[in-house]
Amino acid sequence: MRRPFVLGLTGSIGMGKSAVAEMMREAGVPVFDADAQVHRLQGPGGALLPAIEAAFPGTTGPAGVDRGKLGALVFGDKAALTRLERIVHPAVAAARESFLIEHGGQPLVVFDIPLLFEKGHAAGLDAVAVVSAPAAVQRARVLARPGMTPEKFAQILALQVPDAEKRARADHVIDTGVTIAQTRAMVNDLVSLLREKNPRG
Ligand SMILES: CC(C)(COP(=O)(O)OP(=O)(O)OC[C@H]1O[C@@H](n2cnc3c(N)ncnc32)[C@H](O)[C@@H]1O)[C@@H](O)C(=O)NCCC(=O)NCCS
Ligand SMILES: Nc1ncnc2c1ncn2[C@@H]1O[C@H](COP(=O)(O)OP(=O)(O)OP(=O)(O)O)[C@@H](O)[C@H]1O
């Protein structure tokens, strides 16, 4: 069966990954949003609620997972985070497979995976694009968010694979330290290139 070319899309906090994913959608590319999928699976009536409740009693309810409560249990406890990941990641992988089947007739699909390098999610991807901007631009964007502090920003950065390493490991780098129009042109060029070059398309 024909299979689309699968482009993984990632980037560190504040680099503009969401904006680039939206540009991809506007270019007509189906985009699988891993984060949104996790939220659905953990949301009201979500398929993962029974397994999460069994492993972490008291962390779920009619509104779904209490993310604050569960986060407090797993962030800072490696074994607990691993237990949670063993519940969440297979379900996300299954959703990705369904997405691929649903969009099997497309030449190109995008998997938007925030923790692509951190969690070793590169299997099954034909190429990886990293969204990147200069550190000063990233810092200014993140610190402009409500409730963000330099300390929180530093903590999050410490958990992420450094931008320089992501860029070095990427097949494509999308620069968002430029104008929106320039980034959009880069996105459209990349989409055209991958659609044309897709050996399976
Ligand atoms: C524990 C949960 C419920 C907390 O949710 P909450 O909305 O409070 O935080 P959010 O998801 O926005 O994450 C906060 C920060 O932690 C990082 N983070 C989230 N999950 C992980 C993880 N498994 N390993 C390392 N960092 C992580 C995120 O990149 C982000 O920077 C949630 O993070 C979760 O279920 N994580 C495990 C599933 C997972 O790995 N998700 C990543 C996408 S597949
Ligand atoms: N050239 C550009 N390309 C993309 N975004 C840009 C550009 N110039 C400015 N921006 C702005 O930068 C911001 C990037 O934030 P965005 O939330 O998309 O980052 P993110 O990487 O998705 O963050 P996170 O991964 O933490 O969710 C947006 O508000 C976007 O409008």
| Class inferred from helices and paired strands | alpha/beta
| Superfamily (CATH H level) name of the largest domain | P-loop containing nucleotide triphosphate hydrolases
The total beta strand count reads: 7
CATH fold assignment of the largest domain: Rossmann fold
Would you state the CATH class of the largest domain?
A: Alpha Beta
**Mean pLDDT over the residues:** 94
Unreliable stretches: none
Q: So how many helices?
A: 9
The coarse silhouette is globular
Largest sheet: 5 strands, parallel
Description:
There is one protein chain. This protein is an alpha/beta fold. The protein folds into two domains: 125 residues, P-loop containing nucleotide triphosphate hydrolases (Rossmann fold, 3-Layer(aba) Sandwich), CATH 3.40.50; 68 residues. The protein is 51% helix and 14% strand. It is built from nine helices and seven strands. The termini are close together. The structure holds dephospho coenzyme A and adenosine-5'-triphosphate (ATP). The site of dephospho coenzyme A has 18 residues, from α2, α4, α5 and α7.
Architecture blueprint of SSEs:
Layout: E1 5-10, H1 17-26, E2 31-33, H2 34-42, H3 49-55, E3 60-61, E4 64-65, H4 67-74, H5 78-102, E5 108-112, E6 127-132, H6 135-143, H7 150-159, H8 163-169, E7 172-175, H9 180-197
Parallel strand pairs: 1-5, 1-6, 2-5, 6-7
Antiparallel strand pairs: 3-4
Bound molecules: dephospho coenzyme A and adenosine-5'-triphosphate.
Binding site for ATP: 14-19
Protein name: Dephospho-CoA kinase
Main location: cytoplasm
